[in-house]
Specification:
The chain has 15 helices and 15 strands. Helix 2 runs antiparallel to helix 3. By secondary structure, it is an alpha/beta fold. The two termini are 40 Å apart.
Length: 476
């Protein structure tokens, strides 16, 4: 980590796309204004269509206005820092290379460049060689490339993508971005564990009975039918988002906080994962309910599609810390609420001293990553009265109430990127190890139906029972 942002040209491939409009441009504004870095960065949008610089500034202003920035202020901020270049012609990348040199001189950036590929995986893989062959990857300044998830479609495609990237960029200049890792609550996981002896000393199989990681969405595929029917829940959510949370929860303390030390411990978790048994995974697909159209009834979805919109699984981590502790992972579309949570279920006391109908509780820790970010620690107390009656109550902390508004995940990651901090970006070996672990469960043959607006199919709801656990919404 350099701790300093050097001047650079920020090049957005897919510069007029949905990701640039909704996320990248507003996040760049939030970051550059908050950190007073506007004069350090010029922005170049790249696409196949012809637009002028003025067109792109209008696009950027509209993007900021949609994010709640006053139009007059947004227009002034975009100023002459936004530019556009088309690569739609045969010599498009050679013209782009010349334009990058011209803008570097115009703004006095010293050759620093960041190429953010806000593109589909297939488009990203074909764009990288053109960046390299046109000379864009060579400069007197530092050059970095940013790749959006998903990083491949399976192990073989991820390996091919890594080979293409490494042909032109070394690993220390490659940033695979998973926006979940930029959430302040995710970043806080390591601090929560490692800076608090109360939790780190009990963060093991001796004290913890089960771990749940849930990423639930109340929306459907939202216009991504073609992509989603090829991907499904494992590729879209489990292999990246949930697995990143799993490795942060389960990893050993690193020897220091350098990115390579943290990445090394995350890869060790993936290496310790046991193969997933057929009885430990349930696939589901939502059906129509309460005016919500079922997945198979969406335009563009085959009538007999077996693409899962839900998956629940039990992961076993065969190492010293976690042997015998079930990690219960779950994600789904069209569930009752939007939530990302980590639920730690502690073991019961070795002896039950207090008997009665309210006994049998154990300590529970709920880490809510979104929305209403914070944590709740449930513990037992004596209820008022003469008789000993046990009542479980939470000790609750909400981040916004104590720390103020949280920075958006893209702004956080873009700042790390500009500083050269790879801690929360995904390494090549980590990507391949993750795909390798899920290779046998990527393409299910059958899926259990579940009505939209429910917590999934019955077999998924019952999955934790085999390990003496329940899903968090049933227990708290």
């Amino acid at each position: 980590m350099t701790g300093r942002v050097e001047p650079h040209l920020f090049v957005i491939f897919g510069g007029t796309g949905d990701l640039a409009r909704r996320k990248l441009i507003p996040s760049l504004y939030e970051l550059l204004v908050d950190k007073e870095l506007t004069d350090q960065v010029a922005i170049l949008g790249v696409g196949r269509r012809d637009h002028t610089d003025e067109d792109y500034r209008a696009f950027a202003t509209q993007s900021l206005a949609e994010a709640g920035i006053a139009t007059e202020h947004a227009d002034q901020w975009c100023g002459n820092r936004f530019h556009y270049q088309s690569v739609g012609n045969d010599d498009g990348y050679m013209k782009l290379a010349q334009r990058v040199k011209d803008l570097d001189q115009l703004h006095g950036l010293g050759g620093g460049r960041i190429f953010h590929l806000a593109l589909s995986p297939s488009a990203a893989q074909s764009t990288i060689p053109q960046i390299g062959e046109s000379g864009l990857a060579s400069s007197d300044g530092e050059v970095k490339v940013v790749i959006e998830k998903p990083f491949g479609h399976d192990l073989a495609s991820a390996q091919r993508l890594n080979e293409v990237v490494h042909r032109w960029f070394d690993e220390r200049h490659t940033y695979r971005i998973d926006h979940y890792l930029g959430k302040e609550t995710v970043r806080n996981l390591l601090v929560f564990r490692l800076a608090n002896a109360l939790f780190e000393r009990t963060w093991n199989r001796d004290h913890i009975e089960s771990v749940e990681i849930t990423v639930a969405e109340d929306v459907g595929v939202e216009g991504r039918e073609a992509y989603y029917d090829e991907a499904g829940a494992v590729r879209d959510m489990v292999q990246n988002h949930l697995t990143q949370l799993l490795t942060l929860v389960a990893m050993e303390p690193p020897i220091d906080m350098r990115p390579e030390s943290i990445r090394s411990e995350k890869v060790k978790v993936l290496a310790s994962m046991a193969p997933i048994a057929p009885e430990d995974i349930v696939f589901g697909q939502y059906t129509g309910s309460n005016d919500i159209v079922g997945y198979r009834d969406l335009d563009g979805i085959p009538a007999k599609s077996t693409t899962p919109t839900y998956v629940a699984m039990r992961i076993a981590i065969d190492n010293w810390r976690w042997q015998g502790v079930p990690f219960l992972l779950r994600t789904g579309k069209r569930m009752p609420m939007r939530t990302t949570r980590i639920f730690i279920r502690y073991r019961e006391p070795p002896v039950h001293l207090f008997h009665g109908e309210n006994t049998g509780h154990r300590n529970l820790l709920l880490l809510t990553l979104q929305p209403d970010e914070g944590f709740d620690l449930y513990f037992d107390v004596k209820a008022p009265g003469d008789e000993i009656a046990i009542q479980q109550i939470p000790l609750s902390v909400r981040y916004e109430g104590h720390l103020g508004a949280l920075t958006s995940e893209y702004s956080t990651l873009l700042h790390d990127l500009m500083e050269g901090d790879q801690t929360l970006f995904v390494g090549a070996d980590e990507v391949e190890a993750s795909w390798r672990r899920y290779a046998d469960v990527l393409d299910p043959v059958t899926v259990d139906p579940y009505p939209a607006g429910t917590w999934g199919p019955q077999r998924g709801i019952e999955l934790p029972l085999a390990y003496g656990a329940r899903w968090s919404e049933e227990e708290i």
